[in-house]
Design brief:
alpha/beta; Archaeosine Trna-guanine Transglycosylase, Chain: A, domain 4; Transcription Regulator spoIIAA; 6-stranded mixed sheet; binds S-adenosyl-L-homocysteine
Length: 406
């Protein structure tokens, strides 16, 4: 591994305004630009920022400086001073691996080994698909450390190839050291489509051109659960993407599954993924906007035993929150009309700006309004390879509703 010229790292002493200092003491990983009261030098992306208590001058935390981001310092280490070196990265990755240990005793060889801030590596995501590791970077701060981290990741995960993905923002501004999105950093890749297992069900991910790192691992436990309830049932999977829920349902013995997505390409991979597993149920695909598709299915009086609605994030920014909430309400309202008598509705949200409480409240108000009795069977959050270390780290929530209860 020798992708990046070795870069000198500056050490910058920083002091914060009182409210920000309180957040750091609570181990919140973000320091905003306007909360810095003193900074010993300007610095560049990836320089080490060491935060000292404003009054007592003692070490509080250290992190990496991100001069172009409103989140100016991304914190790695709290309370106890430690050198951020190869050993620190090895320890951090080993402790992340430890948290995934029980998941890896299941028939699963795809997992998120590093979940950004939640694993002490802000803006750094790493997913494993069989023996391919896919890194997705969201910040320039990681370039000076990339070689060291990749070497450690290879050793700990035993990956045979490493692919680099970069966020659009990262690609559009600042120095990227001639690295390209989709570049192979290590090993070889015969095919950009990688086969992997999720609780015994086989999937494929395009690690070079797929969304994010190629697949969404976060719903694994929910998909397994839907698979487990699908025997001889009819299932509707709205926003199916590559068929996460649909394929588990088919593998679980569903009679018929309909996958609906606006993307023809996503549905083609859902079909390919279904074919990777033995199943006797039928798989229909429907290319449509979810809201229009649901309205059409309602007008055709179609009903399904299980309806799953797992949309993309509707609130990528603050200004979209209200609309996002309205969209969740519309989806719950439309979705409940699709559920057959005594069927199950599964509603999910991945917008971190809409809290779990708000989402469940919105969904359940619509279910009450439908006039049908229902029971909330369960509410679930992230799978174990997506640990949550701070409030903004929590984005996924999923409600299971049994309809027409007494
Ligand atoms: N449920 C999936 C993940 C969904 S990702 C899983 O378990 O893996 C979100 C999906 O929503 C993407 O595939 C995207 O193509 C699709 N999408 C976005 N906007 C849409 C719309 N208006 N109607 C239907 N699908 C949409």
């Amino acid at each position: 591994m020798n992708t990046i010229p070795s870069l000198p790292i500056n050490r910058i002493a920083v002091k914060l305004k009182p409210s920000a200092e309180r957040m750091v003491k609570k181990q919140h990983p973000w320091v905003f630009q306007n909360s810095i009261s003193k900074q010993s030098m300007e610095g560049k992306a990836g320089d080490l920022a060491i935060i000292y208590d404003a009054k007592k001058n003692k070490f509080l935390a250290c992190g990496l400086l991100d001069p172009d981001s409103p989140i100016r310092i991304k914190l790695l280490q709290f309370a106890t001073p430690k050198t951020i070196d190869a050993e620190w990265f090895a320890d951090t990755i080993k402790s992340a691996m430890h948290k995934r240990k029980s998941l890896l005793t299941t028939d699963t060889n795809s997992y998120r080994i590093l979940f950004g801030e939640n694993d002490h590596m802000p803006g750094f995501i790493a997913d494993v698909y069989a023996d391919v590791l896919v890194i997705k970077l969201y910040s320039h701060i990681w370039f000076p450390y990339l070689d060291t981290i990749v070497c450690n990741l290879i050793e700990i995960t035993k990956a045979k190839s490493v692919v680099l993905r970069m966020s659009r923002l990262l690609q559009s501004k600042g120095e990227t050291f001639d690295l390209q999105d989709g570049q192979l950093l290590y090993g070889t890749l015969k095919n950009e489509v990688i086969l992997f297992r999720e609780h015994g069900v086989v999937f494929s991910a395009n690690v070079i051109h797929g969304h994010k790192t190629g697949y969404f691992l976060d719903h694994r436990h929910n998909r397994k659960r839907v698979g487990g309830m699908s025997k001889n049932k009819t299932v509707l999977d709205i926003f199916s993407y590559a068929g996460g829920f649909s394929v588990h349902a088919l593998a679980g013995g569903a009679k018929a599954v309909t996958s609906l997505d606006i993307s023809q390409q996503a549905l083609a991979s859902a079909q390919d993924n279904a074919k990777l597993n033995t199943h006797s149920g039928t798989h229909h695909i429907m290319v449509a906007d979810a809201f229009e598709g649901l309205a059409q299915l309602i007008s055709e009086k179609k009903k399904f035993d299980i309806v799953v609605i797992d949309p993309p994030s509707f609130a990528k920014r603050e200004s979209e929150i209200l609309r996002a909430k309205q969209s969740y309400a519309r989806l719950a309202k439309l979705g409940v009309q699709m559920v057959a008598p005594s069927g199950i509705l599964v509603l999910a949200s991945c917008s971190s700006r809409v809290t779990a409480e708000e989402f469940f409240e919105i969904s359940e108000s619509e279910l009450y309004r439908s006039g049908r009795n229902f029971n909330s069977i369960d509410k679930t959050y992230h799978d174990s390879d997506h640990p949550i270390a701070f409030p903004e780290g929590a984005y996924l929530k999923c409600g299971y509703y049994q309809m027409d209860t007494e």
